[in-house]
Specification:
Elements: H1 11-20, H2 23-32, H3 41-48, E1 52-58, E2 64-70, E3 77-80, E4 83-89, H4 96-103, E5 106-113, E6 118-129, H5 133-139, E7 148-162, H6 173-198
Antiparallel strand pairs: 1-2, 1-5, 3-4, 4-7, 5-6, 6-7
Length: 199
């Protein structure tokens, strides 16, 4: 690859960009700043606030699969500037992701921040790590009620953020509940103050 974005901007993709008028802008992006290949402080902060992401894999025959992963905020951990990892919790026990990664290590992580209308795309390779309780313990969120079967370690090839176009703004239920609780407490305090002044 000449540029990190070549992982997604294949010759055929560039052909369509040329045809539809966006190639010049992306060529400028490639030469000026390009996509990043390691974890920056901004990416680390973004990951630390996520409680959900999607992991895409492909089997040996090229059939894609996307699996949701969830946990407490920050459960997708930064191990070093090129490596992410998470404890893989027991779920429906289909093992499609595990099977796919045994045939094809290429993987993709897609993260959404609906409240702030942001998204991050991360290309790379992933591997399943079994029988490593020390790694699973390192990755397991303290106090989280789940059972980890293994760890998945993801090596970054390239990543990029996206513009907010067409992302609906959605607020997490826990954040809404906290805001309503704060409002209710403020109202109660003001009502108590009004009652005191009237007395």
């Amino acid at each position: 690859m000449t540029y990190a974005s070549d992982i997604a901007f294949t010759p055929k993709v560039k052909e369509f960009q040329e045809k539809r008028g966006s190639r010049a802008a992306y060529a400028r992006m490639e030469s000026e700043r390009g996509w990043k290949t390691s974890v920056t402080p901004d990416l680390a902060a973004f990951l630390g606030e996520r409680d959900s992401f999607y992991l895409a894999t492909t089997n040996g025959e090229g059939q894609p699969y996307i699996q949701h992963r969830g946990g407490p905020k920050g459960f997708l951990r930064v191990l070093d500037e090129r490596t992410l990892a998470f404890a893989d919790y027991r779920g429906n026990r289909q093992y499609i992701t595990t099977g796919n990664l045994s045939e094809n290590p290429r993987a993709f992580i897609f993260l959404m921040d609906y409240a702030n209308r942001g998204r991050v795309k991360i290309w790379g390779e992933a591997r399943v790590v079994e029988n490593d309780p020390a790694l699973v313990k390192q990755l397991f969120p303290e106090g989280y009620r789940a059972q980890a079967e293994q760890a998945i370690v993801f090596t970054i090839t390239a990543w990029d953020g996206n513009c907010p176009s067409h992302i609906p703004q959605k607020i997490d239920a826990a954040d809404v509940a906290a805001a309503l609780e704060a409002r209710d407490q403020r109202i109660a305090a003001l009502e108590a103050e009004v009652a005191r002044l009237k007395a």
